[in-house]
């Protein structure tokens, strides 16, 4: 992604140190931070300095690879096992975390000597990151075919370059359509409580001069009913074998509203977000976050101190509400998603 004229990925490795764009500081401040060890990687994921399914996956992949690279031979395997457990315990819903960490861990364990295993881990983590960038570009190309001139598109949360390694999932088709000269307009759900839409999606669209407006989370129905939205595209944190999709809280209600108003609803996601072993959305663990994300705004208490809040971070959109899933291998009906297990 281009920020102030310079190209960045959301997470990358430089001389064996991990760098991320601190997403909690945007859009006010653009800050790059260094993650020096596995505890700092876990903390960055937990506190959402790095967030979005593939971005979390890449940070965790680099985290376990870095741990392997810096571990003494004497406690190499014990350290690696602990790093894997710590990373997998950070956030439960987004599947890329599990996909990427297991990939790097397996590659290291398969290598017969520790000296080689250290570089194998780094290579495997880099491969995950690079493949995600390529996958997102393909998602953009396939998704662009669905976007007609003058389309007004609703998106939820941030599914842009920041949420991936680069380019984005739901924002990739939007980017390509805009660069291909199509006249498009993006409705950006603000996405409470963490405001990924108002802060991050709007930031990415602003940087590329893509016309957009932020709307309150409960305003989408108003615009749909007035015929002002032509399609919805969101990302996904985990897709199950039957085509259900977990994504940021509020996605489900947008999908139901879209069906009610005859508006196509698409999910854009790489194959690394598909959990073929999970039968349906009912089996996806949903993360509940701290109630203070709801009780406060910009660190100021807004709710009565005797009140409590419930804060699920994701919901499940059943396959029946999803028109199609845009992947790097093409666009599939949710019921066809199992096919990808064979062709990936
Ligand atoms: O809680 P977050 O900010 O990590 O949630 C992110 C989302 O829900 C994204 O929309 C999702 O990861 C898909 S985009 C790659």
Could you please describe the fold and organization of this structure?
This protein has 344 residues and is of the alpha/beta class. Helix content is 39%, strand content 18%. Helix 2 (53-70) packs parallel to helix 4 (95-110) and helix 5 packs across helix 6 (171-179). The longest helix is centred in the middle third of the chain and has 31 residues, at 114-144. Bound molecules: 5-S-methyl-1-O-phosphono-5-thio-D-ribulose. Residues 51-54, 94, 157, 159, 163-164, 169, 196, 235-237, 247-248, 313 line the site of 5-S-methyl-1-O-phosphono-5-thio-D-ribulose. 5-S-methyl-1-O-phosphono-5-thio-D-ribulose binds next to helix 2 and strand 11.
> Which series of helices and strands comes N to C?
EEEEEHHHHHEHEHEHEEEHEEHEEEEEH
Radius of gyration: 20 Å
Total number of β-strand segments? Answer: 18
Largest β sheet strand count, sense and barrel closure: 7 strands, mixed
Structural class: alpha/beta
Question: What spatial order of strands do you see in the largest sheet?
Answer: 8-7-6-9-12-17-18
CATH topology of the largest domain: Rossmann fold
Query: Count of helices?
Result: 11
**Which architecture of the largest domain would the CATH scheme give at its second level?**
3-Layer(aba) Sandwich
In terms of DSSP E residues, the strand content is 15-25%
Fourth CATH level, the homologous superfamily of the largest domain: Translation initiation factor eif-2b, domain 2
Terminal CA distance = 26 Å
Query: Which percent bin holds the helix content?
Result: 25-40%
- Sequence stretches where pLDDT stays below 50 over 5 or more residues: none
Count of the separate structural domains: 2
Indicate the mean pLDDT.
97
């Amino acid at each position: 992604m281009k920020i102030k004229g310079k190209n960045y990925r959301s997470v990358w490795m430089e001389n064996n140190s991990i760098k991320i764009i601190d997403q909690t500081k945007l859009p006010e401040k653009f800050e790059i931070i260094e993650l020096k060890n596995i505890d700092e990687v876990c903390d960055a994921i937990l506190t959402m300095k790095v967030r979005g399914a593939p971005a979390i996956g890449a940070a965790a992949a680099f985290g376990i690879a870095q741990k392997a690279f810096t571990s003494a031979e004497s406690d190499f395997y014990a350290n690696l096992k602990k790093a894997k457990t710590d990373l997998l315990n950070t956030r439960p819903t987004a599947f890329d975390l599990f996909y990427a960490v297991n990939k790097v861990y397996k590659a290291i364990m398969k290598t017969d000597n520790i000296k080689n295993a250290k570089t194998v881990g780094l290579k495997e983590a880099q491969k995950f990151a690079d493949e995600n960038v390529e996958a997102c570009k393909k998602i953009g190309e396939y998704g662009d075919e669905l976007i007609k001139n003058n389309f007004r598109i609703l998106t939820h949360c941030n599914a842009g370059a920041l949420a991936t390694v680069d380019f984005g999932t739901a924002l990739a088709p939007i980017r390509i359509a805009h660069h291909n000269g199509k006249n498009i307009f993006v409705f950006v759900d603000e996405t409470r409580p963490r405001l990924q839409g108002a802060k991050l999606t709007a930031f990415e669209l602003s940087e590329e001069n893509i016309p957009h407006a932020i709307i309150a989370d409960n305003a989408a129905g108003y615009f749909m009913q007035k015929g002002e939205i032509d399609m919805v595209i969101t990302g996904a944190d985990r897709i199950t074998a039957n085509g259900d999709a977990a994504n940021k809280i509020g996605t489900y209600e947008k999908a139901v509203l879209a069906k009610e108003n005859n508006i196509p609803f698409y999910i854009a996601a790489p194959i690394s977000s598909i959990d073929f072993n999970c039968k349906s959305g009912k089996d996806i663990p949903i993360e509940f976050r701290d109630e203070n994300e709801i009780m406060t705004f910009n660190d100021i208490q807004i709710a009565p101190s005797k009140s409590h809040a419930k804060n699920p971070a994701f919901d499940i959109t059943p396959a029946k509400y999803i028109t199609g899933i845009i992947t790097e291998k093409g666009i599939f009906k949710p019921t066809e998603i199992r096919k990808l297990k064979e062709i990936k």
